[in-house]
Amino acid sequence: MNAVERVEHYAYQTEVEAPPIIPDNRPPPGWPTSGAIKIEELQMRYAPDLPLVLDGISLEIKDKEKIGVVGRTGSGKSSLMQALFRMVEPASGKITISGLDASALGLEDLRSGLAIIPQDPVLFSGTVRTNLDPFGKYQDADLWDALARAGLKEKVTDMEDGLDGKIQEGGENLSVGQRQLLCLSRAMLKKPRIIVMDEATASVDYETDAVIQRSLREDFKDATILTIAHRLNTIIDYDRVLVLDGGRIAELGTPAELLALEDGKFRAMVEQTGATNSDMLKNIADHA
């Protein structure tokens, strides 16, 4: 009976994702042509009987704008990114990406228009080539160029079969930093207009972090970037910082504006990094 109950649960009670393609509502070729995002009164919960994890989020992000997203654990940072990719469907509200309602698109069309570098690098058993370009869309020269810009060309050149060198499941034969840089190379190939960094530098060393930050400023300078920040140093020179608290927007403004708030949440977070680092961050924000 337990087995029957499990089958019934998965067959009839588990929600099914939206279709990958909606033939009558496909985005035009090359979408998104802009990195502009508009979020209107967004509410989201993980199950109908659970409380809201996002409660009335409204925000306009301009094309090419760099937004840092910060907040305590459970503030709604990752939930906001899940809503953007429709990993969880909103309870209400609307997200518009480059002029199109995200909820009206098929999931494949929506997600292929965005890029993400997650906190935990996602790599598959196969080769460097299949991890970078699983659908065979790019030339070898493009793959090598992306690897070079991510600082991985020498590593892959030294592998026995180069681009066809073996990658173990989860990238176990690579260091944590190399796995993250391989994910960065994958994002470079897409040349995305919108890229999400979900605490992507939380587990890497400062050298790898520096490579990623340089790439964001050079290779993705024409993209809209949303970064969930683990290290405040990485977003202190961004255009704006979004501070979430309890699923709501607590503060939103340039780093310098938020640091000027006497009892501001962002200011408190910066000061908690220590006097020396805090002074450095404030100086960078003032001159950004």
Automatic annotation (TrEMBL):
<dbReference type="InterPro" id="IPR050173">
    <property type="entry name" value="ABC_transporter_C-like"/>
</dbReference>
<dbReference type="GO" id="GO:0042626">
    <property type="term" value="F:ATPase-coupled transmembrane transporter activity"/>
</dbReference>
<dbReference type="InterPro" id="IPR027417">
    <property type="entry name" value="P-loop_NTPase"/>
</dbReference>
<dbReference type="Pfam" id="PF00005">
    <property type="entry name" value="ABC_tran"/>
</dbReference>
<feature type="domain" description="ABC transporter">
    <location>
        <begin position="37"/>
        <end position="271"/>
    </location>
</feature>
<dbReference type="InterPro" id="IPR003593">
    <property type="entry name" value="AAA+_ATPase"/>
</dbReference>
<dbReference type="InterPro" id="IPR017871">
    <property type="entry name" value="ABC_transporter-like_CS"/>
</dbReference>
<dbReference type="GO" id="GO:0005524">
    <property type="term" value="F:ATP binding"/>
</dbReference>
<keyword id="KW-0067">ATP-binding</keyword>
<protein>
    <submittedName>
        <fullName>P-loop containing nucleoside triphosphate hydrolase protein</fullName>
    </submittedName>
</protein>
<keyword id="KW-1133">Transmembrane helix</keyword>
<dbReference type="GO" id="GO:0016887">
    <property type="term" value="F:ATP hydrolysis activity"/>
</dbReference>
<keyword id="KW-0812">Transmembrane</keyword>
<dbReference type="GO" id="GO:0000329">
    <property type="term" value="C:fungal-type vacuole membrane"/>
</dbReference>
<dbReference type="InterPro" id="IPR003439">
    <property type="entry name" value="ABC_transporter-like_ATP-bd"/>
</dbReference>
<keyword id="KW-0378">Hydrolase</keyword>
<keyword id="KW-0472">Membrane</keyword>
<keyword id="KW-0547">Nucleotide-binding</keyword>
<keyword id="KW-0813">Transport</keyword>
<keyword id="KW-0677">Repeat</keyword>
